[in-house]
Amino acid sequence: MKNAEVAELLDKLGELVEANGEDRFKVIAYHRAATSIRNMEGDVESFWREKRLDDIQYVGEGIAKKIDEYLRTGKLQLLERLRERTPPGVPLLMKVQGIGPRTAYHLTHSLGITSVEQLKAALESGSLDSEFGPSVRKSFQVGIEKLHSFEKRMLLPEAEGVFQKLSSYFGALGVQVGMAGSLRRGKSTVGDLDLLSTDPRVIEAIKGCPGVAQVLESGPKRTSVKLDDGVQVDVRLFSSEEYGAALIYFTGSKDHNIAIRNLAIERGRKLNEYGLFDKSGKRLAGQTEEGVYDKLGMKYVPPEMRENRGEIEASLKGKLPDLVKFEDIRGDMQMHTAWSDGSVSLEEMAEAAKERGYEYMAVTDHSVSVRVANGLTEERFRREWKEIEKLNDRLSPFRILRGAEVEIKSDGSLDFDRKFLDEFDIVGASLHQNFKQDADRLTERVVRALSHPSVDFLCHPTNRLIGRREGNPIDLPKVIRKAKEHGKMLEIDGQPHRLDLDDVWAKRAMEEGVPLLIDSDAHSVGELDNVGYGVAVARRAWLEAKDVANTKSRRAFLNSIS
Ligand code: DGT
Ligand code: CA
Ligand code: CA
Ligand code: ZN
User: Atom 18 of ligand 1 has which residue's CA nearest to it?
Assistant: First the structure.
């Protein structure tokens, strides 16, 4: 299997393209294709032989050509060229947040710094004091710390991919395992995987699992291994009467655990990973999670809520929300097609959305000023609408809504005038350019877009890219207030590297009465699954179906935004 090798190649390409200052869309596309190939079940070479590389999630035509060149010739000319013209230190330094190509070249060429470690040492020794002011040096320091803390964390598709591989391996051996840890809580980044089992064979089985590079520690009831891509997996064995208590403990979070343990103590009980006990040591519960919560006087707390953010009080009072589920989502409200920067046709996207059981979807190709994403002019949108009409006839009762992801320009005005914008069914406003403005101006831009009568929702409100770029420093409380005032929705963008709004802010928006919209922001068919990641964020934000606008029927939804 050449999956790891091809993934490595694409990651390298992404790094070098970024080092040469090319646009972000490309960079992200390379990295997400790499992650997808690294974690997929099938063999990339068989896809290639069968000439269906672009069936792979996140692999569009351009990337498929590059993979083809590499598998045919063993080389990739673009990569060679970029390698020749890029000093090796540059991509390494650019992993530090806040260091762009220009600074990286300067550090390498003029100052001879070619690695993050050297940069760290130079900062500590004071040798950069004459070169950079204190605030820049501080930002390098912060960037280095973040890099070190993030490098070990996975995004959800990667973590899920590893989990799926492991569960099919165990499944084939007839060994049952359960997932715990941050992945079970649906957290947007995952440090390591935590697996539990009641089957004693699990300990030997994990050590023999293909892809295990190293056994970090091993005992009769626990093992930790490192896989060859660096992911750590912790496996623990419990008896079936302990299993529920263990599942609570290893699902966490740690803060939730501590709080319920204290609650148990207050009630004269003892709670640990083996069970809930009374003073005499008699087991009161442990076999199931429900049993343990019940004996603590609590209603079952869904894993996504276990963060000690008020869920324990809510559970004790019987006031837990009835969390939104994937099945509640009736329409995917943001996606891109080959009309702009998506990799497949509108027809394919629509058929795939229908197949996923949705009643409706919005196609939201980019608007004209996002040139790097091949944004549409009015004339091209009108041509796209003709295609929508035809497809709607054929796919009925499924329905494609005319949507757009309209660019918020530097001054807060939008691409297109009001008259044209009003011909869309749904308009998302989005900021992709000119992030360098200060917080006030960025906030003003967003607020101005929210006050525009044709706008229905704000796309990925902060523009964060997890592990790569902090969100814009906009005044989110104000944005939420303005959304409420103007009756607009805020998006939970399901792209795994965005997940924007995040759980904390989505909860806040819900509490202020602002409806949320969960969507995939898909650029390929496989990415339609991103909605599931958005739902995980929503559940972590305590949202119920009623808080999410696209759980409504098409008619009710359109009424609510007209
Ligand atoms: P991660 O892996 O960093 O994404 O986050 P988690 O939550 O999966 O954390 P991990 O793998 O270190 O541990 C799994 C769970 O085990 C954690 O969520 C709660 C529990 N746990 C770990 N250490 C402690 C501890 O010191 N005290 C308590 N009460 N629970 C702990
Ligand atoms: Ca973990
Ligand atoms: Ca762990
Ligand atoms: Zn796009």
Answer: 252
Give the pLDDT confidence of 4-55 residue by residue, as tens digits. Answer: 889 989 988 998 898 887 777 888 889 889 988 987 778 899 999 999 998 8
Among the bound ligands, name the one nearest to the CA of residue 217: 3
Spatial distance between the Cα atoms of 347 and 338, rounded to a whole number of angstroms: 10
Atom 31 of ligand 1, residue of closest alpha carbon: 254
With a CB cutoff of 8 Å and minimum separation 6, the contacts of 410 are: 433, 434, 437, 445
β partners of residue 226? 214, 232
Tally of CB atoms within 10 A around 218: 15
Say how many Å lie between the CA of residue 301 and the centre of ligand 4.
36
Choose one of 152, 257, 261, 312 to mutate for the ligand 1 pocket test, by most ligand atoms within 8 angstroms of C-beta.
257
Q: Which pLDDT tens digit goes with each residue over 309-361? A: 999 999 999 999 999 999 999 999 999 999 999 989 999 999 999 999 999 99
One domain, residues 276 and 175: no
Which of 184, 194, 248 to mutate for ligand 1's pocket (most ligand atoms within 8 Å of CB)?
Answer: 194
User: Residue 97 contacts by C-beta under 8 Å, 6 or more apart in sequence?
Assistant: 142, 143, 146, 147, 468, 469, 470
CATH number at residue 354: 3.20.20.140
Q: Cα–Cα distance between 174 and 142 in angstroms, integer?
A: 47
Q: Which residue has a Cα nearest atom 8 of ligand 1? A: 181
Residues 6 or more apart in contact with residue 552 via CB below 8 angstroms = 330, 560
Residue ranges making up the domain that contains 202 = 154-237
Q: Which parts of the chain sit beneath pLDDT 70? A: 149-151
Whole-number Å distance between alpha carbons of 300 and 318: 9
> What span, in angstroms and rounded, lies between the C-alpha atoms of 325 and 546?
11
Atom of ligand 1 nearest to the CA of 181: 8
In the sheet that holds 270-272, the strands lie side by side as: 270-272, 275-277, 283-285
DSSP-derived letter for residue 424 is S
Q: Are residues 74 and 101 in the same domain?
A: yes
Q: Which CATH number is 203's domain given? A: 3.30.460.10
Across 162-260, the runs of DSSP E, i.e. the strands, are 178-179, 189-190, 193-197, 212-218, 222-227, 232-237
How many whole angstroms from 184 Cα to the centroid of ligand 2?
A: 9
- For residue 261, the ligand 1 atom closest to its alpha carbon is 29
Proximal ligand: closest to the CA of 23: 4
Ligand 1: atom nearest CA of 189 is 4
Q: Are residues 429 and 518 in the same domain?
A: yes
Cα(432) to ligand 4 centroid in Å equals 10
